[in-house]
Design a protein that fits this description.
Chain A is mainly alpha-helical. Chain A contains 8 helices and no strands. Chain A has 2 domains: 5-86, RNA polymerase sigma factor, region 2, helix turn helix motif (Rna Polymerase Sigma Factor, Chain: A); 116-176, Winged helix-like DNA-binding domain superfamily/Winged helix DNA-binding domain (Arc Repressor Mutant, subunit A, Orthogonal Bundle). Chain A has helices spanning 5-12, 16-38, 41-57, 68-86, 116-124, 128-139, 144-151, 155-176. Chain B is mainly α. Chain B has helices at 3-14, 20-32, 34-54, 61-105, 111-119, 121-155. Chain B is rod-shaped, with a radius of gyration of 37 Å. The chains are: A mainly alpha, B mainly alpha. The interface between A and B is large, with 49 and 36 residues.
Chain lengths: 177, 156
């Protein structure tokens, strides 16, 4: 998913059609990420709406050499995480580095149990800290460094969350088998 | 590196989170260990499955259209409030200020005198010239201030 430099330039110049092209290109993927982080479709829609309103407000400051897609993912992820932090029914808490991993480690997910629906269902009920890193790493192909930057945690902390998240996902899918 | 140590690194290696030196050591181990290679391939295949699943489109065309409409709503009112609301408020403020100014300056002479002086051709002119000048300055100020307000609003 890419938007060419001309489109960004037109958007900066106030072209509404260019803004619509950017919206149509990125909105579906961002919505998926927001829903996966938040576990809620309605809140996901709110986050994506706010993401594009913010992009529109900051259009004059956009740098043509920096990919607009990465910027949008960053805004969406930050908004979704802020929304999660505000929610009381799900705690967004720091990962305890001494917390025990899944006891009986399940084997890697294979195609038999790892259907698209099954993975999304299982990922959707993981604790927020895990489903967030999974959504950013696999859903948006972000690097460890990019995830660390967005979540304001260290790169080893990202690695640890991904590892634990995958262990929990494997265990959840193995139980469904 | 033994098989247990290698296995601990599979996730990091597949996800691109391993440094170059450790990656080389792991890759050397994988070349000589078929069981670890098989296990590593399984983790790699798992990553691909996760990517496919977590990149699957969860949106519908109706949902995207609804969000787009809301985005346009979110952008439009801000512009209207500034262009119409602020203009109206600014002009009303200027007119009110002028009214107070003109009324105040004649207050010592009483209401009737002030009205009759304003209606008098010479007195009316004395009031009209500063009124027009101040009003023009006010409108100019709005023309300059409004784009500044818009820019500040956009940068927030």
């Amino acid at each position: 998913m890419k938007i060419d430099r001309d489109t960004v330039e037109q958007f900066k110049a106030g072209d509404d059609e260019a803004f619509s092209r950017i919206f149509r290109t990125f909105a579906p993927g961002l919505l998926g990420t927001a829903i996966r982080i938040l576990g809620d479709r309605g809140l996901g829609e709110d986050v994506v709406q706010e993401t594009f309103v913010r992009l529109h407000r900051m259009r004059n400051r956009l740098e043509l050499d920096r990919p607009v897609g990465a910027l949008l993912v960053r805004i969406t992820a930050n908004l979704a995480i802020d929304a999660l932090r505000k929610r009381k029914r799900e705690k967004w808490e720091a990962l305890d580095p001494n917390a025990a991993p899944e006891k009986a480690s399940a084997p890697p997910i294979d195609a038999k149990i790892g259907t698209v629906d099954a993975i999304n269902r299982a990922a959707g009920v993981l604790p927020p800290i895990y489903r967030t890193v999974l959504a950013l790493r696999y859903g948006q192909d972000m690097t460890y460094e990019e995830i660390a930057d967005v979540l304001r945690i260290s790169v080893p902390a990202v690695a640890l969350r991904l590892k634990r998240g995958k262990e929990q996902l494997r265990a959840a899918l193995a139980r469904q088998k | 590196m033994n098989c247990r140590e290698a296995e601990e690194l599979f996730d990091l290696h597949v996800d691109g989170g391993l440094d170059a030196a450790t990656s080389r050591i792991l890759e050397n181990h994988l070349q000589g260990c078929s069981s670890c290679r098989t296990a590593h391939d399984a983790v790699k295949a798992e990553s691909e499955l996760l990517r496919q699943a977590l990149q699957a489109d969860l949106s519908s065309a109706a949902q995207i259209a609804r969000i787009q409409a809301r985005v346009h709503e979110g952008i439009r009112p801000a512009a209207l409030v500034v262009s119409i609301g602020e203009w109206v408020m600014a002009v009303l403020g200027i007119l009110l200020g002028l009214l107070v100014l003109v009324w105040g300056s004649f207050d010592s002479t009483g209401v009737r005198e002030a009205v009759s002086l304003s209606l008098n051709p010479r007195g009316g002119l004395l009031v009209a010239i500063p009124t027009v000048l101040v009003a023009a300055l006010g409108v100019l100020a709005v023309i300059v201030v409004q784009p500044l307000l818009l820019r500040i609003n956009e940068q927030e």
